[in-house]
């Protein structure tokens, strides 16, 4: 069963072009599934008491058009599958009239917060969620291959403002960090992210970047090269005006 909430693009959510940014779209999606979980009795406090948490493993977000400041938008999410310790969700962002602005697929891992390890799903974990049909879209693979010849960039440390309620780097922060390496006038049509390792306060990211025709791949890794996250941006080729 899907869940929706309506919003209006705020000045604090727009970029230099006056439109909602990709991380802004991601925030609307993240808020939408959080609101649904709270409404059905699977919210943060409930999960915390059970020592469970949903941690994002992969994103695929496609953008048809970035809404402008002041535009009314509707974010919608629907879970479509549970398997092992994984949960799968689709998202859409539409205009008030129903025009499709963006759509997405996401894969989440159910974590035992006491051990930090994936926990096989039980009826208690999935209670209240009603599965919907899988969104009709071109699904990319969950894993992102690192291209050869990536260029090392200056390392940087994780700060307090990067953290969320689980005390590790919020999934959207990785996208903001990776987007800093995009060339000027690169308009994102699709973003894929694979989250491989949780980053904590004081950890140091060693970025590596590869720019190709219409695509930029960013790896945020440990000093030894073990990725925390890999983010792939594809340039807009069919964006609406």
Please tell me about this protein's structure:
By secondary structure, the protein is α+β, with helices and mostly antiparallel strands. The chain has four helices and twelve strands, in the order βααβββββαββαββββ. Strands 1, 2, 3, 4, 5, 6, 7, 8, 9, 10, 11 and 12 form a twelve-stranded antiparallel beta sheet that branches. A hairpin with a 5-residue loop joins β11 (215-221) and β12 (227-235). It is globular, with a radius of gyration of 18 Å. The chain starts with a strand and ends in a 6-residue tail after the last strand. The mean pLDDT is 93.
Helix content: 10-25%
Mean pLDDT: 93
Share of β-strand residues: 35-45%
3D shape: globular
Radius of gyration: 18 Å
Whole-Å distance between the termini? Answer: 32 Å
Biggest sheet details: 12 strands, antiparallel
* Helix and strand pattern: EHHEEEEEHEEHEEEE
Total strand segments: 12
Query: Uncertain spans, ≥5 residues at pLDDT below 50?
Result: none
Offer a concise description of the structure.
This protein has 241 residues and is α+β, with helices and mostly antiparallel strands. Helix content is 16%, strand content 38%. The chain has helices spanning 22-39, 44-50, 123-126, 171-179, and strands at residues 3-8, 52-63, 72-83, 86-95, 100-112, 117-118, 151-152, 156-157, 188-195, 204-212, 215-221, 227-235.
């Amino acid at each position: 069963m899907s869940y929706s909430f309506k919003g209006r693009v705020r000045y604090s959510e727009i970029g230099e072009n006056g439109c909602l940014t990709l991380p802004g779209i991601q925030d609307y999606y993240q808020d939408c599934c959080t609101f649904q979980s709270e409404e059905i009795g699977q919210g943060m406090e409930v999960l915390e008491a059970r020592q469970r948490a949903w941690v994002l493993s992969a994103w695929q977000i496609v953008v048809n058009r970035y809404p402008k400041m002041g535009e009314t938008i509707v974010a919608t999410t629907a879970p479509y599958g549970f398997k092992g310790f994984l949960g799968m969700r689709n998202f859409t962002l539409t205009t008030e009239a129903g025009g499709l602005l963006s759509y997405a697929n996401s894969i989440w891992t159910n974590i035992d917060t006491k051990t930090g390890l994936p926990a096989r799903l039980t009826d208690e974990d999935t209670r209240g969620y009603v599965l919907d049909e899988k969104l009709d879209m071109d699904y990319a693979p969950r894993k992102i291959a690192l291209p050869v010849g990536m260029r090392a960039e200056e390392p940087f440390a994780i700060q307090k403002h990067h953290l969320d309620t689980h005390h590790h780097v919020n999934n959207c922060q990785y996208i903001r960090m990776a987007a800093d390496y995009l060339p000027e006038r690169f308009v994102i049509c699709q973003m894929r992210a694979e989250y491989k390792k949780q980053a904590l306060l004081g950890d140091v990211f060693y970025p590596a970047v590869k720019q190709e025709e219409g695509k930029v791949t960013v790896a945020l890794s440990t000093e030894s090269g073990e990725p925390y996250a890999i983010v792939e941006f594809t340039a807009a080729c069919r964006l609406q005006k």
